[in-house]
Specification:
Oligomer: single chain
Number of helices: 5
Order of helices and strands: HHHEEEEEEEEEEEEEEHEHEEEEEEEE
Strand content: 25-35%
Helix content: 10-25%
Largest sheet: 5 strands, mixed, barrel
Low-confidence stretches: 410-417, 419-424
Shape: elongated
Number of domains: 2
Radius of gyration: 31 Å
Distance between the termini: 90 Å
Number of strands: 23
Length: 436
């Protein structure tokens, strides 16, 4: 009888232990859930923030290039920074972090800065930071971790993008141009004329009064002589190129079209890699058959001359000033007519030659040999035949010189140069260590 009473008392003392065990287990399960769900949610938010920052940095760097800032070192891009900030915040804002559009976050959550370039060429940098943190007033909320007292978590990511220009650089990758037109233009900057004896004077490009055109690309260190936007820089310069002898004489590269119709060669791209220093054979433009009509076909103009004949157009506009391209009535995509566009058949990349042939004398009509010293992207506005001179009116958009080391597309050779045959003229890239 006594044993029965003791057993009953023991059983009464164990009452509620199951509830205690369940409660303790629930706390443990909530901890595991917090770890599995909330931590995973924060990791996802961190990845989303990184994607937003990457997109913003790349767009900002592209804004610097479009407004003419591709080199120059600290402070050289001050006038271009407002455009870069606008594009960076817009691109970052189209992404979501934790289910919210970045564009809807408080202003403190997205910042755009411009670190001091540390690469040898002084390539401009854009850094974008995207965050959902307590400090910016919009930390990511937690779910199960609230039970443990963790009401929110901070996520943030930073990305740095560089407008890589290999001019004068002995390091970095070999950059390969995807579509070179078979044209050669001289290394003669028409808007920057200097006196004889000036270190930047290209004596192969004489002007009136004993003066000379400046180089686009220095023949010594291969850097850009006048970076930035016109009137102090080359971006936005309008250039009338001639087939008549002179500082602005251009040449057609002998790519197999000979003296006949050049349309197929002008509309297409080079099929072989043209590396910096490559020797090319030329055919003088005025002797190249239907060259003028070939240019009209390329830019979709129904006739020659400065009047608009359906081709796309370009103008320097905006604040800060940057080139703006508008779709013409003959644009192959009807939806782009009258719209601001970023690509056009009138936008071409061509090779720069020194102004003389490989023997150091002025290039002669017919077949001659010249070497590539750099590259230039220009927008062809129109062509105009005046007597025997086939003139091309174009706007310069970017210039790049060869690096000081050699490299070949498709190989692992030394970098710091540009070649024909893949990629873009001035690439925008995300970097950890700029200039490498």
């Amino acid at each position: 009888m006594r044993k029965s009473r003791n057993a009953k008392r023991e059983r009464n003392g164990e009452r509620g232990i199951s509830l205690f065990l369940v409660a303790a287990g629930m706390v443990f399960l909530l901890g595991v859930a917090a770890l599995a769900i909330d931590v995973a949610s924060l990791y996802v938010g961190r990845d989303e923030a990184q994607r937003a920052a990457d997109a913003g940095a790349l767009a900002g760097a592209k804004g610097l290039v479009d407004s003419g800032c591709v080199s120059g070192g600290p402070g050289a891009c001050a006038a271009s920074q407002p455009l870069a900030i606008t594009r960076a915040t817009s691109a970052a804002g189209q992404n979501t972090v934790g289910g919210l559009l970045v564009s809807s976050l408080p202003g403190a959550c997205v910042s755009v800065t411009f670190p001091t370039p540390t690469s040898p060429a002084g390539d401009p940098l854009v850094q974008v930071r995207v965050q959902r943190t307590t400090a910016c007033g919009n930390a990511m909320p937690t779910f199960f971790a609230k039970v443990l007292g963790f009401l929110s978590g901070d996520v943030a990511a930073t990305a740095t993008a560089e407008a890589y220009n290999p001019s004068g650089s002995s390091t970095g990758p070999t950059i390969c141009v995807s579509c070179l037109k078979p044209l050669l233009v001289p290394n003669c900057d028409p808007d920057h004329i200097v006196a004889a004896g000036n270190a930047n004077a290209n004596t192969n490009c004489p002007e009136a009064g004993g003066q000379f055109d400046s180089y686009f690309v220095s023949p010594t260190d291969r850097s850009i002589i006048n970076p930035g936007v016109t009137p102090t820089g080359v971006v936005g310069e309008e250039w009338t190129l001639h087939t008549n002898p002179g500082p602005s004489q251009y040449f057609v590269v002998n790519t197999g079209c000979g003296q006949g119709d050049q349309t197929s060669c002008i509309q297409g791209c080079t099929t072989t890699a043209w590396t910096c220093g490559t020797t090319l054979s030329t055919v003088q433009g005025a002797k190249a058959g239907q060259f003028d009509k070939s240019v009209d076909t390329l830019i979709h103009a129904t006739a020659q001359g400065p009047t608009i004949h359906g081709q796309d157009t370009i103008a320097m506009a905006g604040s800060p000033v940057a080139p703006v391209i508008s779709g013409g009535t003959n644009n192959p995509n009807p939806a782009l007519v009258g719209k601001t566009i970023t690509s056009s058949d009138s936008l071409v990349t061509v090779a720069l030659y020194s102004g003389v042939d490989t023997l150091g004398v002025p290039v002669q009509p017919g077949l001659d040999q010249v070497k590539i010293v750099g590259y230039l992207t220009m927008f062809i506005e129109y062509e105009h035949k005046q007597g025997g001179d086939v003139q091309i009116k174009a706007m310069i958009l970017s210039v790049s010189g060869c690096g000081t080391s050699s490299g070949t597309c498709g190989t692992s050779g030394a970098g710091g140069t540009i070649s024909g045959g893949g990629g873009s003229l001035l690439p925008i890239r995300l970097v950890r260590t700029p200039g490498t």
